[in-house]
Batch of 2 targets.
Target 1
Amino acid sequence: MKLASIITGVVLVLYAIFALIQLWGTVVSWSTFIKITITAAVIVIATLGLAMLYREYIEEKSMKEDKYLD
């Protein structure tokens, strides 16, 4: 979960900087900017989703080892 948080944080910070630069001065075309926005959103959602699945797997494995689950 820690790695996913770091990746998500980095992507969000880089995107925020890029968005501000794009807002005040045109760096790329708006169609490319929309594509980058969608890509950043997909990366953030996928990273957090995988982190949640991994955490759930680790918790279940731990509970099985402690004999809380069959």
Note: The chain is about 85% helix and 0% strand.
Target 2
Amino acid sequence: MAMWVFGYGSLIWKTGFPFDESLPGFIKGYRRVFHQGSTDHRGTPDFPGRTVTLEAAHEEVCCGVAYKITKEEDKRDALLHLEVREKQYDQKEYLDFFTDSNASEPAVAGVMVYIASPDKKSNNNYLGPAPLEDIAKQIVKAKGPSGPNRDYLFNLEEALAQLGFKDKHVTDLANQVRHILSESEELDIDATAATANNV
């Protein structure tokens, strides 16, 4: 029996395990939010980054990619990889996956999904909601072993766009981060010019 894994964050563009088939599509009743703190990939314990998790949301959908894994050895390798990679995500759900918005039956039933819950007892890295500008400022500054937090956001934005998916939360956040970076560059240019004039 095949195992299916749903990716809605970095798994979309960086899978990290062997698979036999990938299907773009969506799950129902959830939305993607930058509410999970990352202290091991896109941030540090002293300054966490923010990565996506899923939040229950009636009548909303979360787009991503489902990966089919059939060989037993590949299943074991995938699970070993995911249990390390997603170790800060404290819930594992099995949800219906759709590829057609008009379909009443899922394309795949029971895709495995890693979710970081808001339960602080089981997930002490949960950061929760915050104003868009505050989340953007945190993402601009944070970086970890896997690289700058902003790269995670921009990679997600690009990966979704390449699949033809739109996610307002991701787009708005990416635009806010670009705005902050643009302002920072302008300040750097002004400071450099002022220093040059004083030499």
Note: The chain has one domain: 3-198.
